[in-house]
Specification:
single chain; alpha/beta; Immunoglobulin-like; Rossmann fold; 2 domains; nine-stranded mixed sheet; 10 helices; 19 strands
Length: 429
């Protein structure tokens, strides 16, 4: 069955209707009128990005792009643009008059990710991306209270020798400033502050899950990668380095700033940490080196590779974690992982193979873990689709009256086999 055949969207989405039209819904509604709809390009730029993107509302997916990919790539001047969805033959896009945009509005199923790639004048442009078909808990619902996002804060780190870093915090409904709160740290937090206009839709998912008592009220701490005094990006140094330095930075420098506004729980049982790609390995790193401070790990498309491998300095790369898990003392942590067959393969290593290796290591040592291995490319789509489920799984059975819990492997998982690799794009011989 083709994955983009139309299906009825769950009726539960009907309750998400708001008196004020959501910006994504507004954009999709405008696109229904066709490419000549007044203000469509301005609305796409404002809602998505200067180069467009994909707007998802229910079963409707608006692909709108100027065919620009990468910060240094100029828009492609094409006489014909198409989009290939889920590996099917490309279908025509329409030119948006008076703008560099091309658009296509498609009705597709939800509850899965959809792969897409643009084609200009018969040639593929950019790489393949995925887009999530969100489930109802990723949409705002009438009557569900909203949380509060702080303004941007900036600090200069002593642990990272003068690095400047931006950070925000978001307090979910139910958080009391004077009562210590559960928390989650999110790497690459600058990408999450747009709420529903970011891929994960973290705030809406959190609000819905808190309202349904699936997760506790909590403070999300959103931390952007820093910059050295000379302007050098520090993201990889912070995230990909296998050491206790980054979690120490969070605990000693970021948390005290947040605690000027909200009291935070100090027990690792009440603390989670999340990230994607290098942010994913960073989340695991934090819990590995400081399990008493972070015990709930959310790692998607994690970079368990050799990015910060420096043999000249006797510094291991992230590839070492599967072996550390197998051979070093067990940590009391709970780990949600996800990746996919179409993740990266480059000179740093193989993201799919390394994630499978880590999952098997966690299983071998009977960690409390869950591994979702789908069709993901190196983007946020699968993590976004899973977010209501992954946060619920990570915080299941949380009791604010406790400060610790012995995490154990789910008996259902214990009876399952190790993950095995099957080559599906070549003949065996």
């Amino acid at each position: 069955m083709k994955r983009f055949l139309p299906l009825l969207f769950c009726a539960a989405l009907a309750v998400a209707a708001k008196a004020d039209v959501h910006p994504l819904e507004q954009l999709v509604n405008a696109a229904r009128g066709g490419p000549a709809t007044a203000g469509l390009s301005d609305l796409a730029t404002k809602t998505l990005s200067p180069h467009g993107g994909v707007a998802v509302w229910g079963q409707e997916y608006l692909f709108i792009t100027d065919l620009t990919f990468g910060p240094e790539t100029a828009a492609i001047t094409a006489s014909k643009a198409e989009v290939s969805i889920d590996g099917q033959p490309p279908v025509a896009m329409e030119k948006v008059p008076g703008s560099p945009f091309w658009m296509r509005l498609v009705l597709m199923r939800v509850g899965v990710t959809h792969a897409y790639q643009y084609v200009a004048d018969g040639k593929s442009v950019g790489r393949r991306f995925d887009v999530p078909g969100y489930n109802p808990l990723s949409y705002p619902k009438d009557g569900v209270p909203k949380g509060n996002l702080s303004e941007k804060h900036t600090l200069t780190s002593k642990i990272y020798d003068g690095m400047k870093v931006d950070f925000w915090w978001y307090a979910s409904p139910g958080v009391d400033r004077n009562t210590p709160s559960a928390l989650m740290v999110w790497q690459d937090g600058q990408g999450l502050i747009r709420g529903d206009l970011s891929t994960l839709r973290l705030f809406t998912v959190t609000e819905n899950l808190v309202a349904e008592k699936r997760i506790p009220p909590m403070v999300h701490i959103l931390v952007a990668p820093g910059f050295a005094p000379d302007g050098k990006p520090m993201r990889s140094v912070e995230y990909d380095t296998v050491s206790h330095r980054y979690p120490l930075f969070l605990h000693e420098e970021i948390f005290p700033q947040v605690e000027k506004e909200y009291k935070l729980r100090t027990d690792g049982y009440s603390r989670g940490i999340a990230g994607e790609s290098s942010g994913g390995i960073s989340s695991f790193d934090a819990a590995w080196f400081m399990p008493d401070k972070f015990s709930r790990v959310h790692s998607t498309i994690g970079s368990y590779t050799s990015i910060q491998w420096h043999p000249e300095d006797k510094q291991e790369g992230g590839y070492i974690f599967p072996f550390m898990v197998r051979k070093m003392p067990k940590r009391n942590i709970r780990v949600w992982m996800s990746d996919g067959t179409d993740d990266l393969e480059n000179n740093h290593g193989s993201w799919p193979l390394q994630n499978i290796e880590l999952a098997n290591s966690l299983k071998m040592r009977e960690y409390d873990y869950h591994f979702r291995f789908g069709l993901a490319t190196h983007d946020s789509a699968q993590a976004a689709l899973d977010l209501p489920e992954s946060l619920t799984w990570l915080w299941r059975d949380y009791d604010p009256g406790k400060t610790s819990q012995e995490y154990t492997l789910d008996p259902v998982e214990k009876d399952k086999p190790y993950y095995r690799v099957k080559i599906d794009n070549r003949d065996s011989w």
